[in-house]
C-alpha cells in the first residue's frame, strides 16, 4: 500500500507517476471543515528560522500590486516565509541577486530530474525545511490551511499538513499573475479544478519553471516558492504517514 502512496508522492516529478494506482488503502483527507487532529508527538523537521527582514527585501515587497491583494499582516507572513526560504535557497548557489538563486535552482532541478537524479537531493526536499518551523509565517494565515492530510482507512489516523487554500488572497494574486503568464494560468486553473496538487502540476513546476517564469519578478518568485513549499509539505506528511504505517 505504502509503495503506491510513495509512487503518488515521492515520484511525482517523474513520468512514472502516471502509472500509479489511485486506489490505495491510505487515502488523502482534504477536509473543508474543522481541522483534523495531527498525529501526536510529531517530529518537527529542522530548518533555518531566521526571518529577519532586510531593507532590500522590504523594499521589494513595497509594491502596489501586492498591496492590492494582501493586508499588512499577510505581507509580513509572506516576508517571513520568503526570507527563510531565500536564506537556504541561496546558501549553496553562487549569486549576485536573489533572482539568480531562483533561476539556478529551477535549472538544476530540471536537469537533475531529466537525468533521473532523485529530486529529494534538492532544496527544499532534503528534510531541512518545513513551514511548521516558521510560526510567524503560518500562524493565522489566510493563505495556508492545515486541513489537508493523509488518513489511514482502517485506523482513522491522520497526518495533517499545510496546503494552499483554494480561496485566499494569495490565490487571488496568482489569478492576477495568470492573466499575464500562460504557464501560471494553467497551473492555477488545474489547482482550482482539482482543489489541490496534481501529478501534472508537480511535473510542470519542476520541469518547466526555468523556461516559463521570469524570476526578476517578485510575483514569479512567490509563485515558485509557494508551489514548491506546498509540494514539500505534502511530501513531509507522506514520510510521517509511512513511519506511522511501519509502526
Q: How do the helices and strands line up, and which of them pair or pack?
A:
Blueprint: H1 2-9, E1 26-30, H2 55-61, H3 64-67, H4 72-89, H5 98-114, H6 135-138, E2 144-152, E3 158-164, H7 169-178, H8 182-194, H9 199-212, H10 218-245
Antiparallel strand pairs: 1-2, 2-3
Helix pairs in contact: 1-10, 5-9, 7-8, 8-9, 9-10
What does this structure look like?
- The protein contains ten helices and three strands, in the order αβαααααββαααα.
- The chain has a three-stranded antiparallel β-sheet with strand order 1-2-3, with helices on one face.
- Mean pLDDT is 76; it is low at 1-27 and 29-64.
- The chain has helices spanning 2-9, 55-61, 64-67, 72-89, 98-114, 135-138, 169-178, 182-194, 199-212, 218-245; strands spanning 26-30, 144-152, 158-164.
- The two termini are 14 Å apart.
- It is mainly α and 247 residues long.
How big a fraction of the residues is strand? 5-15%
**Spatial strand arrangement across the major sheet:** 1-2-3
Stretches where pLDDT is under 50 for at least 5 consecutive residues are 1-27, 29-64
What does the overall shape look like?
globular
Distance between the termini: 14 Å
Helix/strand/pairing class, anyone?
A: mainly alpha
- Computed over alpha carbons, the radius of gyration is 17 Å
Q: Percent helix among the residues?
A: 40-55%
Amino acid at each position: 500500500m505504502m509503495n503506491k502512496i510513495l509512487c503518488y508522492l515521492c515520484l511525482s516529478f517523474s513520468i512514472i507517476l502516471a502509472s500509479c494506482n489511485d486506489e490505495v488503502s491510505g487515502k488523502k483527507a482534504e477536509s473543508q471543515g474543522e481541522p483534523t487532529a495531527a498525529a501526536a508527538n510529531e517530529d518537527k523537521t529542522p530548518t533555518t528560522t531566521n526571518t529577519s527582514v532586510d531593507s532590500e527585501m522590504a523594499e521589494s515587497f513595497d509594491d502596489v500590486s501586492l498591496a492590492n491583494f494582501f493586508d499588512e499582516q499577510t505581507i509580513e507572513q509572506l516576508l517571513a516565509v520568503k526570507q527563510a526560504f531565500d536564506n537556504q535557497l541561496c546558501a549553496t548557489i553562487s549569486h549576485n541577486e536573489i533572482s539568480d538563486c531562483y533561476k539556478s535552482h529551477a535549472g538544476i532541478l530540471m536537469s537533475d530530474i531529466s537525468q533521473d537524479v532523485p529530486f529529494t537531493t534538492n532544496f527544499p526536499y532534503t528534510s531541512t525545511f518545513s513551514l511548521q518551523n516558521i510560526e510567524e509565517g503560518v500562524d493565522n494565515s489566510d493563505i495556508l490551511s492545515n486541513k489537508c492530510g493523509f488518513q489511514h482507512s482502517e485506523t482513522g489516523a491522520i497526518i495533517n499538513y499545510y496546503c494552499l487554500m483554494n480561496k485566499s488572497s494569495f490565490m487571488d494574486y496568482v489569478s492576477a499573475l495568470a492573466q499575464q503568464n500562460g504557464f501560471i494560468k494553467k497551473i492555477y486553473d488545474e489547482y482550482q479544478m482539482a482543489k489541490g496538487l496534481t501529478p501534472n502540476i508537480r511535473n510542470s513546476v519542476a520541469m518547466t519553471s526555468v523556461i516559463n517564469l521570469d524570476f526578476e519578478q517578485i510575483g514569479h518568485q512567490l509563485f515558485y516558492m509557494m508551489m514548491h513549499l506546498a509540494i514539500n509539505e505534502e511530501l513531509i506528511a507522506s514520510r510521517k504517514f509511512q513511519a506511522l504505517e511501519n509502526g
